[in-house]
Specification:
Blueprint (H helix, E strand, L loop, with lengths): L8 E6 L2 H9 L4 E5 L13 H13 L3 E6 L8 H14 L3 E4 L13 E4 L8 H10 L3 E3 L6 H8 L5 E8 L11 H6 L16 E4 L5 E6 L6 E3 L4 H7 L1 E6 L6 H21 L10 E4 L13 E2 L21 E9 L4 E4 L9 E5 L5 E10 L2 E4 L11 E6 L1 H8 L3 E14 L2 E8 L4 E7 L3 E2 L3 H13 L6 E3 L3 E3 L4 E2 L2 H21 L20 E2 L8 H9 L4 E2 L12 E6 L3 H4 L15 E5 L2 E8 L4 E6 L21
Parallel strand pairs: 1-2, 1-11, 2-3, 3-4, 4-5, 5-6, 6-7, 7-11, 10-13, 20-24, 20-25, 27-28
Antiparallel strand pairs: 7-10, 8-9, 8-30, 12-20, 14-15, 14-19, 15-18, 16-17, 16-19, 17-18, 20-21, 21-22, 23-26, 29-32, 30-31, 31-32
Helix pairs in contact: 1-2, 2-3, 2-11, 5-7, 10-11
Length: about 625
């Protein structure tokens, strides 16, 4: 199959409309945001009016807005979700990110559908099925290697979306039930309790302790900085940043970082193009190391590798700055070449490995005066900076501008003059100025005044090429009239851009779709309503279990399936070490015990457990969600 060339889309997270607007200013081609309900991220909900406001801003730049409607839905929620889909469409949303296939059996608006990463998209067969079912874009599993992405791309014409930055869920998305089993908070419904960030002790099948009190299911953060070109060549067209709950400085810094990188790729490789209009400029230099992270990894992009876990701590340690060489009365001296600022945050690991932090009240060269000096700090301790006050202050200000190119043409008319503006997308508007023609006494000054007044686009979204004059001779025109003409034309052009924004059409499902890749679905299929059941039956699935959240007792089952493998992490992999068997292991956190079983053929680890007594799903809490889902 010949795959058509796609523009490279930078997709940024938006906690709310203001964050989304800043993401677009800093170079995002699209943003994804949660609506008032059913979006898989607790604490990131927005009312429809806010989404309309974001759409109006985004569409001025031909940027798109995707709304997450990606929890699994109970039968009692289907009608509310359908009405919400229509409200979002009418507000201007460009696509819905969907997990529950029951939605496809309903009367949805003609809006593009994207398959959430929660639909567990990790092989060509699944993605090809989703294409036939009527999806236009699919969020690939974070675990896929570049080679596996390429294999998917060969089998589909869908736009492929790939996470390039941010928090990593250790489990295959949509295949994690620990939170629901232990707390009743379902990750598939946006309320993940993040058991993966807890400390555990690992013991083997003989009871021998392998390691104690480490965050063994906590991954480092994703960073595909070095793989963008390879991903684009493999078929990725949408480069997604995780973080609908991250702060604004994260959104600005990380969006600007990837905008800069993608612009460099596009400049050097003409087969790739931008996915939206305008160019962003920044008042700061993007630096991902200064923004919250648990250390970075490119995960499985190049295949399985060591050191993908953040076992020591799930906290943000920050950038290495040096060692403590002296401790005085209320101060410390650091061996470093870094420059410090009042208000910086620094931290260190204590004797037990825990991370302790200090706020720097005053910095005098390499001598730091913390607000409070921890007793645990010793000479020789390694210091990290997890807050650069000067960098954060730069991001608190207006830190980016985004402008689209426009060509002004000023010409004579029968009744006076007209200003025509044509932007980089070919959108054109014209505004007439009824005015008498008075020959200028100073021709050179008159022409300069016209060019200067009509070329000033100030704080608007436009940057102008030199004004083209189509005049029979220099005419005198008041500056006030010229400025008013320019303002009117600018407003008209902005409105025209919004009105002509090309909303992507809904894909038409195939007349003869390929069957669903499986003819049986266990609880791992996340079927939680009768509409979803009907969808899968229509596509060839014969046996369908209820979703885990339905509450039917299943005993000991896989509560998490992950490509992360603790046998591999501790050099106990049967494929790597002779005479090692893949015997089960146990993770212990207090009274909690989870059994680890290893599927070496699939190269996966299964975390086995059961539902706690008394745990029930709270259907009353329809919340916009909590894992790193999209």
């Amino acid at each position: 199959m010949t795959r058509p060339q796609h523009p490279l889309e930078l997709l940024a997270p938006a906690k709310n409309a203001d964050f989304g607007i800043e993401a677009i200013k800093h170079g995002a081609d699209a943003v994804y945001i949660g609506g008032p309900s059913f979006g898989a991220r607790y604490g990131a909900g927005n009312d429809v009016a806010e989404i309309r406001r974001l759409c109006e801003f985004a569409h001025r730049y031909r940027a798109r807005v995707f709304v997450a409607l990606n929890t699994i839905l109970h039968d009692a929620e289907l009608e509310a979700s359908r009405r919400l889909a229509w409200d979002l469409y009418e507000a201007g949303a460009d696509a819905l990110i969907v997990q529950d296939m029951g939605l496809l059996e309903m009367d949805l608006p003609p809006i593009q559908l994207h398959a959430s990463t929660q639909t567990d998209n990790r092989n060509p067969e699944k993605v090809r099925f989703l294409e036939d079912a009527g999806f236009s874009q699919v969020v690939l599993a974070r675990e896929l290697s570049i080679e596996e992405v390429e294999a998917v791309a060969r089998r589909t014409t869908l736009a492929l979306e790939y996470f390039v930055h941010g928090a990593l869920c250790v489990a295959y998305s949509g295949q994690c039930y620990i939170s629901h089993a232990h707390t009743g908070r379902s990750a598939n419904r946006g309320e993940c309790s993040q058991a993966c960030r807890l400390p555990y002790t690992l013991v083997d099948d003989k009871g021998k302790v392998i390691t104690e009190n480490q965050h063994l299911l906590s991954m480092k953060d994703n960073n595909q900085t070095d793989n963008l070109l390879a991903l684009a060549r493999a078929g990725v067209s949408s480069f997604k940043i995780e973080g609908r709950l991250k702060d604004l400085s994260y959104v600005k810094n990380i969006t600007a970082h990837y905008r800069t990188l993608l612009d460099g790729i596009i400049a050097e490789h003409p087969e790739f193009t931008r996915a939206s209009s305008g160019r962003s400029t920044f008042s700061f230099t993007p630096q991902p190391d200064k923004t919250f992270n648990r250390g970075y990894t490119d995960y499985f992009a190049g295949g399985r590798q060591d050191d993908i876990g953040a076992f020591d701590s799930p906290a943000f340690v920050g950038e290495l700055i040096g060692e403590v060489v002296e401790i005085g009365d209320g101060w410390i001296a650091v061996n470093t070449d870094q420059t410090f600022h009042n208000g910086d945050g620094v931290c260190f690991h204590d004797a037990t490995g825990d991370v302790l932090g200090m706020r720097i009240n005053r910095a005098e060269g390499d001598k730091l005066f913390p607000a409070e000096l921890p007793e645990e700090l010793t000479v020789g301790a390694t210091l990290f900076r997890n807050r650069d006050q000067e960098f954060e202050r730069a991001l608190e200000k207006d830190s980016a501008e985004r402008r689209a190119a426009v060509q002004p043409v000023f010409a004579e008319t029968a009744t006076g003059f007209a200003l025509t503006l044509t932007d980089e997308d070919g959108v054109t508007v014209a505004v007439d100025l009824a005015h008498g023609k008075e020959i200028a006494q100073n021709a050179e000054r008159a022409l300069a005044t016209i060019r200067d007044s009509l070329g000033k686009f100030g704080n608007t979204m436009f940057v102008a090429a030199p004004v083209e004059l189509q005049l029979s001779q220099p005419w005198f025109l008041p500056v006030g009239a010229l400025n008013a003409l320019r303002r009117e034309a600018t407003e008209k052009l902005e409105a025209a851009r919004v009105a002509t924004h090309p909303r992507p059409p809904r894909a038409v499902p195939a007349e003869n779709p390929v069957p669903y890749p499986q003819d049986e679905l266990t609880y791992l299929g996340n079927v939680f309503n009768e509409k979803a059941r009907a969808f899968y039956e229509k596509h060839g699935v014969r046996l369908i279990e209820d979703a885990y959240e339905a509450g039917n007792e299943k005993g000991m089952v896989s509560l998490m399936i992950t490509r992360h493998c603790l046998r591999y992490s501790f050099n106990l992999c049967p494929k790597e070490v002779k005479n090692i068997k893949p015997d089960p292991m146990t993770l212990i956190n207090g009274s909690e015990k989870l059994i680890l079983k290893f599927d070496c053929k699939a190269c996966e680890m299964h975390v086995i457990g059961k539902m706690k007594k008394g745990v029930k799903l709270n259907l009353g809490s329809i919340r916009p969600a909590a894992s790193g889902c999209g």
